[in-house]
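Lay summary. Proteins are chains of building blocks that fold into shapes, and those shapes determine what they do. In this project we predict the shape from the chain. Here is one chain we studied, written as its sequence of building blocks.
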Amino acid sequence: MVHDSSSQPRLSHGSYEEDMALLLAPRLAYFAGVARHEHVTRAAQELGVPQSTLSRAVVRLERDLGVTLFARKGRTVSLTPAGRTFLASVERALGEVERAAESVRADADPHGGKVAFGFLHTMGSETVPGLLRAFRADHPGVRFTLVQNYGEAMLGGLRTGELDLCLTSPVPDAPDLVARRLDEQRLRLVVPDDHRLAGRKRVRLAEAADEAFVTLESGYGLRRITDDLCAQAGFTPKVAFEGEEAETLRGLVAAGLGVALLPPPAVARPGVAELTVTAPRAVREIGVAWLDGHPDTAPVAAFKKFLLSRRGQLLPE
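And here is the predicted shape, written in a compact code that computers can read:
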């Protein structure tokens, strides 16, 4: 294993930082094995590689670094000061890789793995807890990372890998996503309890054409649905307030600041009346989406199958 590092080609300065990790990574475990035994033959036996392969790997590592890591005497080696410095960092790096590998293996475990699941804020108080309780009856060890957000943000999470699955509305239609409709949810016209329409059970949306509306911000699925339904009713809503959460909008309605199209609340709120909209048909579709072509771990596949089995039964009665 004698060599002259000064005669070996080095990485060009421009590509050094970019390429160094790629060059060094496969050889670090070999280096650590030789350093641990201070003997090439014993290290080769432990690592299960030919002695010649191990020797060449260490020589190339020193060549790429431009530093002598071992003082050599036959098959026996000892670390140089530079080698000892390098070994400390290599052992930390290899330990981190092993911890990362164990983490992803654990996340993929069919009995105790992890699912990153996104859902709309309006589904967080009742629908999602009920789903998780039902799923975990048969999969008690599966863990969840739960993310509440609006639709477009969750679709972005699917694309970046932050999420495995999400419940969203409207059901997305995008070439890089797969989406399946699961259920639909009726929307109600919510008015203050002293409003002129408050004594009614049913209303046509056109009857609210002159009202001030409180809505979710642009980009939220429910905002798009509200705008579309008002357009079908023949008017553009006059938006007085925009928010980020449905129950905040109910509070604004209760304060007399406008009316809103909202899904039913988990718990009835005082100060408002909730009216069935007879025309147009006021519903929002709820669907599950995932990234097309993205391989599922066992727990993700199991939860996806469970959600698809809930078609028409997703929402509480």
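What the prediction tells us: Residues 54 and 186 are 68 Å apart (CA to CA).
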